Amino acid sequence: MFNQTIRLLGPQLLLAGVLIIFVPNLLNGQTKESRPIYKQANQSVQDRVIDLMGRMTLEEKVGQLSTLLGWEMYEKTADGVEASEAFKKAVQERNIGMLWATLRADPWTQKTLETGLQPDLAAEATNAMQRYVMENTRLGIPMLLAEECPHGHMAIGTTVFPTSIGQASTWNPELIEEMASVIALETRLQGGHIGYGPVLDLAREPRWSRVEETYGEDPYLNGQMGIAMVKGFQGESIASGENVISTLKHFTAYGVPEGGHNGTSVSVGDRELHQSYLPPFKDAVQAGALSVMTAYNSIDGIPCTSNGYLLNDVLRDDWGFNGFVVSDLGSISGLKGSHHVAATLEDAAQLAIDAGVDSDLGGYGFDKNLYAAIQSGKVKMDVLDQAVAKVLRLKFEMGLFENPYVNPELAAQKVRSAAHIDLARRVAKESVVLLKNENATLPLNKKLNKIAVIGPNADNIYNQLGDYTAPQANSNIVTVLEGIQAKVGKDVQVDYIKGCAIRDTTQSQIEEAAALAAQADVAVVVLGGSSARDFDTEYEETAAAKVSGAKEGEIISDMESGEGFDRMTLELLGDQMKLLKAIEKTGTPVVLVMIKGRPLNLNWADEHIPAIVDAWYPGQEGGNAIADVLFGDYNPAGRLSISVPRSVGQLPVYYNYKNPKRHDYVEGSAEPLYAFGHGLSYSEFEYTDLNVESEGSAQDAKVKVSFRVSNTSEVDGEEVVQLYVKDLVSSTVRPLMELKRFDKVNVPAGKQETIQFELTSDDLQVLNANMNRLVEPGTFKILVGRSSRDIRLEGSFEID
Q1: Which stretches make up the Fibronectin type III-like domain (predicted)?
Q2: Between 119-136 and 85-94, two packed helices, what is the crossing angle to 10 degrees?
Q3: Up-side HSE of residue 132: CA atoms within 13 Å toward CB?
Q4: Candidate list 120, 218, 328, 614, residue with the active-site label
């Protein structure tokens, strides 16, 4: 691709914060018979990086920063799988150092259960690629393989967990860390090294298509979930053979695009950026995250992929991040084609790398454009060297030069094991939120005569799994219908009818569904949305789906959520409301189960349906988990991590908006229908004996908060206790209240637990008018309760 080389290395290199001065004798003092320093495992990583970079040409350095699309890089054969000619060509002509989504299978990649790879073959494929680069390139630098891992490794035959919005609804970081370690193991066993995730964008715009990928609207909860994912992914050491590098997405403020349009501009002030949108990323970086992905959007006119303030001043200088930054797919070329801040692709490459981007996802942002920018002098050699060093350092730290291969037999044995499936059921159970339960409609009796299971999401595996999911064997997924059937056995008659689709209205069976419900003891109606891509969907270069209506005579896809499917309203689409109203009219008790990726309008259901359960996208064990909740084998303890609005006219709706308190509209309340932190239980809990003690000054404050939670019912249950803080007077405008601590506590029937939290100065800080972070003296209020709207105890303390 390139036709010339330049000097081997610049005079100096900044590696992990240390200024390295190159000494020629270090490289030239070796005999031809000795092994190069970079191939000696007993040498320091720093020395190995220096040695290797001293041997690399400009083409090889530039190639290390290219992350190409990986699913075209293998070929299935009669005997197994091997590296493709496309891979060999990319290695030889472009010196690539990384691949993305090699094992991904979905309609975008056109990989199916037949053309994609089961875990053992996946391991063989990645081994074949590694073997080729180790044995057929001049320096034998192993590949880094990045995979999508938000709620399971996005590959065939892996374990599918609830999407992130459901994970956050567990309010259980320890459980999410355990889940992340399983995702990492399944990825690493197949030859992956980097897991894309977690997504730490605050979701304060429910019309946006990617709400399901987030942990909701709150900075603190997002941060705790981010820490859990990073610890689970990376473990004690990325050299373990069981862990992967965590890539945080999307840096930053991506989740609040104007009008809900995915990837468009964001209007966020600097103070709000630092108070709300950056803290979850900071938490995850301080937990050790080794990679960060830039966002597609711009902030105050600066695209995130060319924002040196964010990537260098904040991420590296302020937070001490020493990993590598990767662009989102196509976002470097997007500086020219989308944002129009670069006149040429060469200029776009220069803007990105100078801003702190180290790796090009897609492989067409840097590559020849970066090479040209270096040759023309637009990009300095030491800037390139710093980026390459960050990538090489992680290859050495992961042990890939010594152990580039994986064991296909272990992949076959351990991926989607029975233990992993059990964990998927546990995460799904804990993610289910009981929104309403009038007259103790739930739990259901297992001795009912007839149960009608109705709705487009009652028996549809892909509508249950969410976006970023690979094709699945039907036997791997338990739908709601199947979960109910397994729960009640053959003694109870369970009848099913779809009733309608999510969006299409040409094949609805409203009357038939109502007739079925009328004959039943209870009707379980499963509605919501879908992020299920199909092979007829068209896609952008960024992998986002293109929204399109059906042509005359064609059936409309169910997909109304997932990347690219932004909404104007939050109404249930198609004939779903007609179906629900027709069933309610029969007089049969109705339990509404919602499976979806974003908050939807539930005003009518809240007024007319006695029991409402929100399961988000619950993953492969969703049917079993929902049945566990419906029949009382699991007492629901999920809590909302995002507010459910009454109308799009209220947006944005989130609990910790800034003072002053909002007043109602002419048409109705300004409050959300269901508030952040809301979720019911089959138990009843009482909060008593709040005690607040503070000591120290503003610089070293410690506030100890204790209280008791009693289970006053006859049912064992878990309670999510939530502690909020309100700063009564501050020099800049503060939120009405802020979540600062929470815990999920098991309280047996008739028993009580004492809960203790400790706050520090970090929890009480404000950004003052000069953007200095400090604790201001004054009075703070402590609010303890079951949700942001269900406060049971109040206290206060003073800071001198």
Answers
A1: 719-788
A2: 40
A3: 22
A4: 328
Q: What SS3 state is found at 766? A: strand
pTM: 0.94
How many helices and strands (H and E) does the chain possess? 22, 29
- Whether 368 maps to a domain, the answer reads yes
Q: Is 328 a catalytic residue?
A: yes
Please give, one letter per residue, the 3-state secondary structure of 377-410: CCCCHHHHHHHHHHHHHHHHHCCCCCCCCCCHHH
Question: Measured between alpha carbons, how far is 96 from 197 in angstroms, rounded to an integer?
Answer: 23
Q: What value, to the nearest 5°, has the Cα angle with vertex 270 and ends 264 and 276?
A: 80
125 with 52, same domain: the answer is yes
| CATH of residue 251 | 3.20.20.300
- H or E element that contains 577: helix 576-585
Residues 392 and 520 in one domain: no
pLDDT at 28: 40
Instruction: Specify the pLDDT at position 698.
Output: 86
The tokens describing 331, both together, are 């976002």
Full strand arrangement of the beta sheet holding 194-199: 324-326, 291-294, 245-251, 194-199, 144-148, 98-100, 66-69, 360-361
User: Is 671 inside any structural domain?
Assistant: no
How do strand 493-497 and strand 450-454 relate by DSSP bridges?
Answer: parallel
30 and 178 assigned to the same domain: yes
Same domain, 330 and 374: yes
Choose the final residue of a domain: 642, 667, 697.
642
Say which residues have a Cβ less than 8 Å from residue 117's Cβ, sequence separation at least 6: 74, 76, 81, 103, 105, 125, 155, 156
Strand ranges of the sheet holding 752-760, from the earlier edge strand across to the other edge = 685-695, 702-711, 752-760
Q: Are residues 407 and 437 in the same domain?
A: no
Question: How many structural domains does the chain have?
Answer: 3
What's the CATH number where 471 sits?
Answer: 3.40.50.1700
Residue where a domain stops, chosen among 380, 412, 444? 412
Is 161 in the same domain as 21?
yes
Q: Which of 349, 225, 333 is nearest to 279 (CA)?
A: 225
Mean pLDDT by groups of 10 residues along the chain of 800 residues: 35 43 41 80 98 98 98 95 98 98 95 96 98 98 98 98 98 98 98 98 97 98 98 98 98 94 92 97 98 97 97 98 97 97 98 98 97 98 98 98 98 98 98 98 97 98 96 96 97 97 96 98 98 73 63 83 96 98 98 98 98 98 98 98 97 96 95 98 98 93 97 98 98 97 98 98 96 95 98 96
